[in-house]
Amino acid sequence: MTKRTEHLTAMATQLRRDVVNTIYYAGDGHPGPCMSIADILAVLYFDILKLDPENPKWVGRDRFILSKGHACPVYYAALARRGYLPPAELKTLRSLNSRLQGHPDQKLTPGVDATSGSLGHGLPQGCGMALAARRRGDETLTFVLTGDGELNEGLVWEAAMNIAKYKLHNLIAIIDNNGKQSGGTVEVISGLYNLPEKWRAFGWYTVEIDGHDIELLTLALENAAKRGRASREEREGMIILHGMPAPHPDQPVIFVAKTVKGKGVPYMEGNNAWHKRVPTDEERELAMSILGGKDLE
Amino acid sequence: MQGLDTLAEKDDRVMLICADSLLAMRATEFVEKYPEQYVEIGIAEQNAAATSAGLALEGMIPFFATYAGFITMRACEQIRTFIAYPNLNVKLAGVNGGIAGGEREGTTHQFFEDIGILRTIPNMTILVPADADQARQACIAAASIPGPVYIRLGSGRDPVVFEKDTPFVPGKINVLRENGNDIALFGNGILLPRLMEASEILASKGIGVTLVEVHTVKPLDVQGVTDVLKKCGAAVTAEDHNIINGLGSAIMEAAAENCPVPIARIGLRDKFPGSGLPQELLDYYEMSVEDIVKAAEATIARKVRS
């Protein structure tokens, strides 16, 4: 394991630990959906995204939208560990007058670029942000992390058409493809299957990837980010992953990241009861014994 | 959309977002002049509203323009959660407002609930211009009002009410006539000419009328409205909207809290309309000049009794 992967793996574990503690103290929240994206967020927030936590509104920053807003405990943890918030503040999640609302609030929380929580809105918001970045003519990127359950929403596919139509190569989308939504599997609940084929049919360059392979995620997202900042000429022939043909220079890129809901805490893994549930004292202890790292201070 | 041209000329943050509504908005000239400031979403209003939110997050001033009902109903949640909640600078321009605006298209294109829907959402400003020049001015004014603004437009063939460049001051009532204090008439939009005619008839009968245009339904000029109510002691409201939760309701709420006096509402009486010619529709659905005159007389009678 490289030093870089080692560091990101440690950060992902820290985020998972923070999620268990945050939801335990808050007495409410969605742990399962947080755990499936902990590795992706660690890679983005501790390696890929260009950010300045001292200056959250810096115009030259990369934008990030957590479209699946109910997974905000892990998002807040990433922001805290990246220096936007004191980690102890995570305990205030979902309480009166907290900056950490039950779903992300762009006006309240430093580092949150877009309000989310009502599902299916990250891609259209990202479309607007990427169009604005193109008008500014700068190299900022817009990352959108969406669940697979929220792809039930028709609005997502409306935005998929527009982002491809406007050739927004500066927008990078990631699907947390854990296969489960609140009431069961995505296929059974909504009949949504063959995700990669669907995105290809909508004109997107689609990369299937293991959403828990930190080394591979880092490599692929780094390539996507480089390509996102490159000129059209430079983009010609730029690849995302070895063994795959390069995207057309005008195509937006989406990662279909295979993940496991609850990943990292064995009793949560694949168990949809943890979509929304608070760990008991014993469950918390067990999780702490598995997940290393620091407490919420 | 002449106002948008004026804005775009001075400010390149001003953008037009369409949901295949370019022709309906008569905005082809804008696109020819400012192609970089135009985004075509296609027939997908939720997406248009959420994309406008994204643009506004980055400092743009998007004007999302299409049919009033497709903005306020199809994209209602996007407006509420992703535009109004973060108080973003998105301007919404809705055509075919009211039953006269939708006219021959029928109920699917007649939007008489739009103001009521948006009035319940915090941070919204709601402007109801009466004619093309006021619409132009409302559009220009909207750009300098912080946060989301809804501009309720008609069919674009509405009768001219005001001379060009008659001052339009958002947030304030506009007293058009003060012929006495027997009754106050409050109204806006396409019903304004009818209110003017009704006030002439009432005056000819010796009834003193104060005629007030309320183009800003939200935030309502509560002080201005209260002052008129105190002076007149009775009022009629008139609007091309459902009588529920439009201007009439707003005036009645202000009256109930500040100056309870008899008030009658003229508007669509909580039913679905249908196809027809604009003026004929307004007559048929009880928004005629005669309806206004009768309502005024009946309300004055209530005032005398009490």
UniProtKB/TrEMBL annotation, chain A:
Pfam families: Transketolase_N. InterPro entries: THDP-binding, Transketolase_N. Signal peptide: none annotated. Its cofactor is thiamine diphosphate. Keywords: Thiamine pyrophosphate. SUPFAM superfamilies: Thiamin diphosphate-binding fold (THDP-binding). Residues 11-227 form the Transketolase N-terminal domain. The keyword Transmembrane helix does not apply. Coiled coil: none annotated. The keyword Metal-binding does not apply. PANTHER family: TRANSKETOLASE N-TERMINAL SECTION-RELATED. Belongs to the transketolase family. This is Transketolase.
